[in-house]
Design brief:
about 375 residues; alpha/beta; Aspartate Aminotransferase, domain 2; Aspartate Aminotransferase, domain 1; 2 domains; 7-stranded mixed sheet; about 40% helix; globular; binds pyridoxal-5'-phosphate
């Protein structure tokens, strides 16, 4: 991001000078790297940059669904899916089925199949739960969606950069991603990867720097869905992060000569990242599960999961626990409903205002986990003796 601003910090496409060409090259390269990262075999121009995942989900859902359509979704979704759909249901004549999940946070793909009707236009599913860490069988749901001829939209906010995502093999029509989590980009950048056969109308129209004489938004991607100046420093951040993934993967594979592809190198990086993160979360979960007063939500045992773990101590308000962990132990957690109110309704945690969520990452270490365990152990003792 720093080299972008210092080296060629200008808008692309608006001028033909050398710096504008450099900026354009960087954006084109980033679309290409992300297309490979997610195994998108269509045009890289169908990798679209937006403000964040919420922006992408609004563009996709509001663009695809019309009055009379039906959408299948789940009770695990984030508000960035729940709310656009609620608005479409209330104001746009769209009907909805929200499929439930089991106690550990898994959707049965057969429940998705059974919810699909002849009017179903879209199936939208969260890959990794941002409360429970449960990971859905996207490939199975993708097959069901393809067979039914519905558009399959996947929210990969918690999985992109952590688990391998192959849009071809998983049958994903619109993959929504955010930049600032597992993809190691900055805040305020997100996007989507759109299958060649899916048509989305533009949510915003305006300047593109190309075909300016046309009174309408160009049909050609990415300009069709990108009006106005894109977040160039954000894209530069994603670009650097993609190269970091490849470097990490090459180090794992011992590929000093850079003979393996970006895709293969990133795959090796993800295997390594996932094992580090699961090591953290398994240590954390097993210690916390031993504490009498602590409730640990979500997957148990060897179930497929990400490094996201939510807990409560008795019925202590989640916000209070979060504040004490921060003030007394310098452990930063996210306390509350995590923008996923239906998950907390199903867990019965709305009254205590949600739960406390730990999300150790690749750069967390054993000391961080020990500190979190010590904090919860001490605080559960205080509650016990209060
Ligand atoms: C599962 C899930 N979906 C969507 C979002 C929204 O992402 P963004 O803040 O990029 O809009 C988040 C982020 O918290 C998330 O965890």
């Amino acid at each position: 991001m720093d080299s972008f601003f210092r080296g060629f910090g200008v808008n692309p496409g608006r001028a033909g000078h050398e710096l504008a060409v450099e900026a354009e090259k960087m954006i084109v390269e980033t679309r290409g790297l992300l297309a490979k990262f997610f195994n998108h075999r269509g045009d890289p121009e169908r990798v679209i940059f937006t403000q964040n995942a919420t922006d992408s989900l609004n563009i996709a859902l509001c663009g695809l669904l019309r009055s009379g359509d039906h959408v299948v979704t789940t009770r695990l979704e984030h508000n960035s899916v729940l709310r656009p759909i609620r608005h479409l249901e209330r104001d746009g004549g769209v009907s909805v089925t929200r499929v439930g999940r089991d106690a550990q946070g898994y959707i049965d793909p057969e429940d998705i199949r059974n919810a699909i009707t002849p009017k179903t236009k879209v199936v939208v599913v969260n890959h990794g739960s941002n409360v429970l860490g449960s990971v859905q069988d996207i490939e199975a749901i993708g097959k069901i969606s393809r067979a039914a001829g519905t558009v399959f939209v996947v929210d990969s906010c918690q999985s992109a950069g952590v688990l391998p995502i192959d849009v071809e093999a998983m049958g994903i029509d619109v993959l929504v991603f955010t930049g600032h989590k597992g993809l190691f980009g900055p805040m305020g950048i997100g996007g989507m990867v759109i299958h060649q056969d899916v048509e989305l109308p533009p949510a915003r129209v305006g300047g593109t720097g190309v075909d300016s004489i046309s009174p309408f938004q160009p049909d050609v991607y990415p300009y069709h869905l990108e009006a106005g100046t894109v977040n160039l420093p954000g894209i530069a951040g994603l670009n650097a992060a993609q190269k970091w993934f490849a470097e990490l993967g090459r180090a794992q594979l011992g590929d000093a000569g850079k003979t393996v592809s970006h895709q293969q190198a990133c795959k090796a990086a993800l295997t390594h990242i996932e094992s580090v993160e699961l090591g953290h979360i398994n240590r954390l979960a097993s210690s916390l599960r031993e504490m009498d007063r602590v409730t640990v939500y979500g997957p148990e045992g060897n179930a497929r999961r990400t490094a996201t773990l939510s807990v409560n101590i008795d019925n202590m308000p989640a916000g209070q626990l979060g504040e004490m962990l921060d003030a007394d132990y310098h452990v930063c957690v996210r306390a509350g409903l995590h923008c996923a109110p239906l998950v907390h309704m199903d867990e019965g945690t709305v009254e205590q205002k949600g739960a406390v969520r730990f999300s150790p990452g690749y750069f967390s270490d054993q000391e961080d986990i020990d500190q979190a365990v010590a904090g919860i152990a001490d605080l559960s003792e205080i509650v016990t003796h209060a």
